Amino acid sequence: MAKLTGTAQAVWMAAMIAVLAGCGESEQAKPAPKPPPPPPPVPHTVGGSVAGLPGSGLVLQLNGSNDLPVSANGKFSFPRTLARGSTYTVSVKASPSAPVKQTCKVDKGSGKMVNANISNVTVTCTTVTFAVGGTVAGLAGKGKGKELVLQLNGANDLTIAGNGKFVFPAVRLPDGSDYSVSIKTIPARQKCTIKPVSLAFDRDTLNIVSVTCSKKGRRR
Q1: Residue 196: which of 182, 210, 183 has the closest Cα?
Q2: Fewer CB near the last or first residue (10 Å), C or N of the chain?
Q3: Phi/psi of residue 3, nearest 5 degrees
Q4: Gap between the Cα atoms of 160 and 145, Å rounded
Q5: Between 2.60.40, 2.40.360, 1.10.10, 1.25.40, what CATH number should domain 44-127 receive?
Q6: Could you give the C-alpha distances from 133 to 152, 155, 195, 197, 207, in angstroms and in order?
Q7: What pTM was computed for the model?
Q8: What pLDDT score was predicted for residue 76?
Q9: How far is CA 185 from the centre of its chain?
């Protein structure tokens, strides 16, 4: 039986060291696996709720575009999505017009997108109100017993002592509401007639009646 001599043993040990060294180099040469890429950011929507809306005509916008018509109270949401970190602004492009004119106010309508849908924007609509007035012509004079007294909706007495425009003070009627102007007291020795008109003094005051007075017995 052959015996391993000192020289052969040394050669054998060197060969084993070389093999082990090669294995180590081979293992170290393998590249580490790359981590998976981060998931893309999830886009989110912007929305909220509308209150006080009786009809149609309201149009909202997101960041100056993306028109969203709204015709009922309740929740709304823009179809367009926004990425996290982007800014948003909700505004009113068109106010409601039917069956009544309204103005709408946006609350919590701007900010920056977080990692969730925005749902706390509130839009509150209120009906536009108008002052009510008209014109008077033909009053003969001033003083006790010569004043003309008008009423709005059976109340709100308004004493008029001179010709020209008049407005019922401290009374505003919502758009679309009923109204009636009547004569409560006629000046002494005069007769007065009232008729509706369809003009307006300005955007805030309706000129709804014309009152004409004349002396009794005088034909007009």
Answers
A1: 210
A2: N
A3: -115, 145
A4: 11
A5: 2.60.40
A6: 9, 14, 12, 11, 5
A7: 0.70
A8: 98
A9: 46
